[in-house]
Amino acid sequence: QVQLVESGGGLVQAGGSLRLSCAASGTDFSMLAMDWYRQAAGKERELVARISSGGRTYYADSLKGRFTISRDNAKNTLYLQINSLKPEDTAMYYCAAPKNGYWGQGTQVTVSS
């Protein structure tokens, strides 16, 4: 059974930083292209960043510069570093391998002004 478990969210003041983690199990993580998505209350889910199995990265244009996606295949873990947090970054953040149908349960990020 494949599991993706996010952690690292929380309440942080604007300007702060967070590192989200996504621990994968039950699959060959190193072979997966992995995404981070987010969904704010009342809004559609949006892609934040993507990393291929080979480490190539992609970021949503509006989010470039503050977000860094990375992976540690030895630890079966995906990361999302978020710097200079803004109140509009408040959302549930999900890790996923959408092409394989794998989604985590999400971790809440709340940014206070």
Short recap of the structure:
0% of the residues lie in helices and 52% in strands. It has strands at 3-7, 10-13, 18-25, 34-39, 46-51, 57-59, 67-72, 77-82, 91-97, 102-103, 107-112.
Strand content: over 45%
Low-confidence region ranges: none
| Biggest sheet statistics | 7 strands, mixed
- Tally of strands: 11
Q: Mean pLDDT score, rounded?
A: 97
Q: What is the number of helices? A: 0
Radius of gyration: 13 Å
Share of residues in helices: under 10%
Question: What is the H/E string?
Answer: EEEEEEEEEEE
- Kindly name the structural category: mainly beta
Describe the protein.
- With 113 residues, this protein is an all-beta fold.
- Strands 2, 4, 5, 6, 9, 10 and 11 form a 7-stranded mixed beta sheet that branches. Strands 1-3-8-7 form a 4-stranded antiparallel beta sheet, with no helix packed on it.
- The radius of gyration is 13 Å and the shape is globular.
- The termini are far apart.
Summarize the helices and strands and which ones pair or pack.
Layout: E1 3-7, E2 10-13, E3 18-25, E4 34-39, E5 46-51, E6 57-59, E7 67-72, E8 77-82, E9 91-97, E10 102-103, E11 107-112
Parallel strand pairs: 2-11
Antiparallel strand pairs: 1-3, 3-8, 4-5, 4-9, 5-6, 7-8, 9-10, 9-11
What labels would you give this structure?
four-stranded antiparallel beta sheet; 113 residues; mainly beta
